[in-house]
Write a structure and sequence with these properties.
The structure holds 2 protein chains of 2 kinds.
Chain A lengths: L1 H16 L7 H16 L4 H13 L30 E3 L4 E3 L1 H13 L3 H5 L11 H11 L13 H14 L10 H5 L4 E3 L2 E3 L5 H8 L4 E3 L4 E3 L1 H11 L10 H13 L9 E3 L1
Helix pairs in contact in A: 1-2, 3-6, 7-11, 10-11
Chain B lengths: L2 H18 L6 H15 L16 H8 L6 H13 L12 H9 L41 H5 L3 H12 L21 H12 L8
The chains are: A mainly alpha, B mainly alpha.
Chain lengths: 270, 207
Amino acid sequence: MNRVAAVITATMLLIATTGPARAQGASVEDSIAAYREMLADDNPAELWEIKGKAFWAKKRGPKNASLEACNLGLGPGVVKGAFAQLPRFFADSGRVQDLEMRLVSCMIDLQGLSRAEAEKNHFSTDNDASDIEALSAWIASESKGMPIALPQSHPKEKEAYAVGEQLFHYRAGPYDFACSTCHSSSGTRIRLQVLPNLTEPAEAKAIFASWPAYRVSQGTVRTMENRITDCLRQQRMPMADYGSQVITDLTVYMGVQAAGGQMAAPGLKR
Amino acid sequence: MNPIRKLSLVLAVIAVAGCAAPQVGSEASSLDARTAAALASSFTGAPPEWLQRLVQDDVQAQCSTARGRPSGDVAGAIVLSQQAALKYPDSGLMGDWKNGEKIAQSGVGLQFSDKPGTVPGGNCYACHQIAKAEIAHGTIGPSLLGYGKLRGQSEAIQKYTYGKIYNAQAYVPCSLMPRFGHKGILNEQQMKDLTALLLDPASPVNQ
């Protein structure tokens, strides 16, 4: 932990001391490399992985069932490698779903929970831990080292990508911001925070590969749904519904841009 | 039309566009309709008065379609329309640079996490280097350090600077910089104070 905080502080200082000079592409790569290096060391997300693995096997709900028969896309109960291919289309729900929405579907179908119960505390707070954050950490870790390969064969998967790309460039609201305002050129920052260029495959790969991630500033594992919700907040958009189509489509857009990257989640972030 | 009627009309248009998607002839307009439908379905928990933010004005729509790089004709039309919409104070363009510095630092306002009624800041440091002492500045926009020293304080420069803050796209179509006056983010006094921050010889920007 201390080491993590130290490396992050050092990275920030490094950026700060570059002063007025525009941060160059290289410094983005440096900080991505620094992140990667940290991933190899102790990541507090391991605790979430352990909890998530236990949670997967735990019986609960009116049907007193575990999630072990949940189909994450590669067949019932197959966890290894599943995350590297999400979001994808599921015939039973008729929708393109990310990991979180798939887990909610399984909690409803297999365990008999209501949607509200399944989605409870989906983003943890200081007072309430999130089962979904723990499950996400563990399931993501089971795809480590595998290539990102979101399927693009079903028409709904293609549509999600196309709409996601539109949404990425959709300027609106009082500030005229789109995702692209902050994430379509390399080497820029907001204050001291380095902004990845998510339209650039090399950067998209490294970033997409690292979520969900343990966030040092928040002391918990956060998912991509949470990251996008927070960026929509900075974009001065309204709060998006959990599992909304906008979030799924943006995730598909970023994931397809990142095709071939090597999964390294859970990552470790500021 | 009262705001609520206008909003419901807008949302009705979005909903109809969404349903009509498969019938729409051209691929591009069908994609736009699907995008509008995705937006219309994704914020059901938000207060109704926030939904207007999802609807683009003409400039936002043109800049999105052009991916921020409008062609000559579109670019020219944006600059003309935004120039025509510029509004200047009745007297004086220079306020108090000390207040300007506070406004430039403040990043609060207009986020769903802000307390309702929070006065929005300019958040200029998010994107610009301004006073030298502040090292935690972003780099999306150019450095403004020494801005007034380089350009002087002529009336033309004052007018350009105030106008730029009021509506960046009156000069650079599809700029990444928010249109602070045009969109009602900052008030007249705040924009005058920021103009002074950039131009006043006593401001730390020009030391």
